[in-house]
Design goal:
Blueprint (H helix, E strand, L loop, with lengths): L2 E3 L1 H7 L4 H8 L3 H9 L7 H11 L3 H4 E3 L3 H6 L1
Antiparallel strand pairs: 1-2
Helix pairs in contact: 2-3
Length: 75
């Protein structure tokens, strides 16, 4: 998938554990883990906003676009 989730990087930079972020944001640790691994099909903007508020970051700090071979062929 061309979208990479860098949530683990931001957690490390903020010296925060997933469990703590999940509690502050109001989602389960399991859902946060799925988000970190990129195994979700979508994320609500309200959830993304709460994560950004807690980590004091921008959505672009958490999400990155890396085109793969299939995306490059389509252009």
């Amino acid at each position: 998938m061309p979208i990479v989730v860098n949530l683990d990087v931001m957690l490390a930079r903020r010296k925060m554990r997933s469990k703590e972020l999940a509690a502050k944001v109001g989602i389960t640790e399991q859902n946060l883990s799925l988000l970190k691994s990129g195994k979700v099909r979508g994320v609500r903007f309200s959830t993304l906003a709460r994560i950004c508020a807690e980590l004091d970051c921008q959505p672009g700090d958490l999400l990155e676009y890396r085109p793969g071979p299939e995306e490059e062929d389509e252009t």
